[in-house]
Design goal:
Blueprint (H helix, E strand, L loop, with lengths): L4 E9 L3 E8 L3 E6 L8 E6 L5 H10 L5 H9 L3
């Protein structure tokens, strides 16, 4: 069974390097990023507590209304 995405934060570092986070309904986060123009398309599964704080506000902006309560419950577990 596929995990359902509930929020994301997509940014670019140094003009061309991806640095994206995708939050799933079970609280896991996929971090997709580029280290350099020669070392790219990296993926790591991380815990929500390891997502940079500034990205959490991006999650709140990108969440669908029907998933907003779930997002707030997941974020409340960080404290």
């Amino acid at each position: 069974m596929d995990k359902r995405k509930i929020a994301s934060s997509q940014k670019t570092r140094k003009l061309t390097l991806d640095d994206d986070y995708t939050l799933f309904e079970d609280g896991t986060v996929l971090h997709e990023y580029d280290n350099s123009q020669f070392d790219f398309n990296k993926e790591d599964w991380i815990e929500l507590k390891d997502v940079p704080k500034e990205r959490l506000s991006d999650f709140r902006k990108s969440v669908k209304p029907e998933d907003a309560d779930l997002l707030e419950k997941l974020l409340a577990n960080l404290n």
